[in-house]
Prior knowledge:
Layout (H helix, E strand, L loop, with lengths): L1 H4 L5 H14 L2 H12 L8 H11 L3 H13 L7 H15 L9 H17 L7 H10 L3 H11 L8 H15 L10 H17 L4 H13 L3 H16 L3 H6 L1 H15 L4 H14 L4 H10 L1
Helix pairs in contact: 2-3, 3-4, 4-5, 4-6, 5-6, 6-7, 7-9, 8-9, 8-10, 9-10, 10-11, 10-12, 11-12, 12-13, 13-15, 15-16, 16-17
Amino acid sequence: xxxxxxxxxxxxxxxxxxxxxxxxxxxxxxxxxxxxxxxxxxxxxxxxxxxxxxxxxxxxxxxxxxxxxxxxxxxxxxxxxxxxxxxxxxxxxxxxxxxxxxxxxxxxxxxxxxxxxxxxxxxxxxxxxxxxxxxxxxxxxxxxxxxxxxxxxxxxxxxxxxxxxxxxxxxxxxxxxxxxxxxxxxxxxxxxxxxxxxxxxxxxxxxxxxxxxxxxxxxxxxxxxxxxxxxxxxxxxxxxxxxxxxxxxxxxxxxxxxxxxxxxxxxxxxxxxxxxxxxxxxxxxxxxxxxxxxxx
Length: 296
């Protein structure tokens, strides 16, 4: 502000002021400045970028979309990847339902194309997608979150590659276990399986990657793979000590019961052994008690 008082308030100094406001993340002041500059004849079209960014940050989504669409549509403008990221984020925000759990499919598809364009121009943009994807995930907008994380993991050198794969797999899994889903999507679930595989390859001690991979393959009706991953989950947690086993008792019971169901027809002795492990943890477990009766 002191700098501005020492200038003639020319468009050049105003643009520099806007650059400072972006660095300071003072988006309210930036939007005011951008709207003032927009009225000046022959203003640098870059002002549309400032207007788009600030309008988005201040919740003026329609204004953000218009400004950024106008700016990016003109091939004479020096468009940067961040312009498309902001445009994509604005479209997702506009299409998000009141409860935050879904995003309009048309706006989401258009937003993902914008984000892909940004990443293809500058792969480092993938580093920034974790925040957007996680926000959607936390809102339980799992389909939209999965779409964002899928773009993020397209760059293996991203600093968030490991965690983004985990979120991708989880988002797809939860999106396919919603109450309103009539039938899980096998193509999407295969992507989740690959994502969990990427996590396991890079970090074999990430126990939850095994259990979510098991659950995913349960939905895919791949029982052998399901059972193998439940066992890997049990082995991984067991190696971490008794305290971890106690903390994850419910997941152990889930693993034992699902593996027992798998072995019930092919290896009754193995199934009984697994059910007994459940009953050792939870003597009143209804599923294990009923399954034991059927196996006799």
